[in-house]
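Lab manual, section 2.4: Encoding a predicted structure.

Procedure: take the sequence of the chain (450 residues), apply the prediction step described in section 2.3, and record the output as structure tokens. A sample record is shown.
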Amino acid sequence: MSAFKPNASSRSSWLVVLGAGGLATAVAFSAPGLGLPSSGLSSITDSPKEVIDQVWQIVYRDYLDSTGKYDPKAWKTLRKTLLAKPYAGTEESYEAIRGMLASLDDPYTRFLDPKQFKEMQIETSGELMGVGIQISLDKQTKEIVVVSPIEGTPASKAGVQPKDVIVSIDGESTKGMTTEDAVKLIRGKEGTKVTLGLRRQGQVISVPLVRARIEIHAVDSQLNTTAGGEKVGYIRLKQFNANAAKEMRAAIRKLEADGANGYVLDLRSNPGGLLEASVDIARQWMDEGTIVSTKTRNGIQDVRRATGSALTQRPVVVLVNEGSASASEILSGALQDNDRAKLVGQKTFGKGLVQSVRGLADGSGLTVTIAKYLTPKGTDIHKNGIQPDVSVKMTEAEIKALSLEDLGTKKDSQYRQAELTLLQALKASNATQTYRPGSSNVESAFRRAG
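Recorded output:
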């Protein structure tokens, strides 16, 4: 389902939370005009300079500096310099724009030429042709890093792992590449081949993949029964896409009808997605309290709260790891800060910035960081991540041995700890049955709740 279907040439914008891998889903909102006072320069009517000035004005008006590299005075001087130059065509002006944005040192504020902007629209529509990985540019090393493979895709089936460094694509070194450069090489027609060179624990391995149509189902769920008779609703949320909230609602209602005594919500390796989906899903678990606040450079805050619409009051434990990012951190932070759930696993990724996607005059586009989001207790997630209440790290041997079908079963050590934590919460709330460690019912764990 497409999150939006804009005209690429329109001067429109969307408020988004970009996932750690740079893929975005968006919610439309009305775009303000570019109404800055005249600079005294001659009227800018030719397309190359008009686009340069549009980008400059958007940054000048809305950009939230998270790197300390933005200087308003230098930015004003830069505008005069760029607009005084002649440009032979759009490619020259695009290079000027990229150079201008590079001075901000913000990997999430970037220019998209018309082709790239169209590709972003395709990505957000969910109609992807590729191998199924979320990638990010490591700010320190400038390397292309896998944030998370998407379940059921060629990358996932081939064993690509979070934190794998992509050192080559079809033999071409990724040194100096942007995420957009890498995505262009990785994506392609269904059925064609691409080979990734991955560095993992100091060793480089070659992983051949066949591109496919990527279909993402946001939610998997099942009902587990412990040896003590407690029914545990296990819900795995893989991405905050346009259908995530609807699928989550259906899963909770089904598990409630099946008699779940409590829940384990698995956000491991969930790279994020729609901000609205994270808020909607939080409201399905919370009756009251703040969910998230967004803060612009002017200090304006948009506070989102629960609305008394929770679908269950039963205890919840949330599983997180280093691949849980963006919208995953909004949801887990909301449940943790409101004492609605305990977090089990590893510290989350640490992606707490909000971008706006802007369509420009000639069909190109811009993603610009405009805000950061804070947990209900005011924690700035960006670069810091969220610490779990109970830390559990899988060994490399466990990760290699664990299949997707093993998640949420007794073979999954982090799930076992989450189940133990949930049983303790049930006991504290006058649960009458006892728990024996390692008691996940494997046969039950493979059942799907619909």
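Check your result against the sample. DSSP finds twelve helices and 21 strands in the chain.
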